[in-house]
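chain below, 188 aa
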Amino acid sequence: MSIQASQLRPGMVIDKDGFLWQCLESVHKTPGNLRAFIQAKMRNLKNGTQKEFRFSSTETLEKVDLREKSMQFLYNDDGGYHFMDMENYEQIQINKEFLGNNVFYLIPEGLVNVTFHDSTPVGLVFPQTLSFKVIEAEPNMKSATATSSYKNAKIETGLIVKVPQFIEVGDKITIKTESGDYVTRVKE
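prediction:
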């Protein structure tokens, strides 16, 4: 589906030079007596790199429609990470390089939305926050005062997160999936 660059909005995916790019932000600019253009910050869906593009406001772009499927993460092995479609029980395998740091948010038997272009997986969509159990934590600092000081803690998936001093092994914490930052301790 073709669109004009001036219609580009955050979240849209376009095909440019054979790669799928997701728009993170787009700004319409008209500098002085020059022609208007669109400055867009884009993310490559294949390798996750970010790049700035400049399009003429009347340039035609090829918008790509993606579909999401709810899938269950089953397990990982040397071949990659295995997911099962919850509707028809078909399984797919995605390699670790493609997933990048997303592997730290996968819990066996946990549900995740997998984004597809045709029949090829192009990304995972997680909720904004997820909760995990702390399996290792540095000891509390005796000199910790009212000022905020953080220590390292390891969650059940292996990710190291900076957490406040009061977090201990066995606590359940909520983290942001976009950045891996600590949000809060989960009260049980």
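The two ends are 48 Å apart (CA to CA). The chain has a mean pLDDT of 88.
thats it, cya
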